[in-house]
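Q: Sequence in, structure out?
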Amino acid sequence: MLIFLVGYMGAGKSSLGALLATKLNYRFIDTDSWIENRCCKTVSTIFNESGEDYFRSKEKECIEFLIDKDDVVVATGGGLPCSNDLMNLMNELGEVVYLKADASVLSTRLFRERMHRPILSNIHSQNELNLFITKHLPKRDTYYAASKLIINTEKKNQMDLVKEIQLLIFS
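A: Exactly. Output:
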């Protein structure tokens, strides 16, 4: 089985995905790390040198790479479900879980790491970041909402979220 974790930046896809994979004895793939390893460049460098369209094509390659794989938890980049019809493909391939969080929670989580996120690197204040997320989250939420499962991550620790995902998928 493939389990895809989707959601906005800062939703906890990578950390939760690694924990879930360990708990299930599955492999874990973070799509951004997969692309960085494949291209031998950071996501930021790829964006700066080759642009967003090129990066999105690499995300598609990653999901297509998983077509015949099994027992893998995949943490997707925040924009991955919004391009190249990848949300539909992920829903065909496995279980897609939307890790939903409020814009204020996301901005708090993302503020200290914004310089490592290409689309956030020019944001200088917490308020500016919150406004950015509040503006962009509804556009992405339209795609995320097509997930088979939607879990609100607020006020839940990672172990509780892992248990909730396991219960929903395997019951």
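The radius of gyration is 15 Å.
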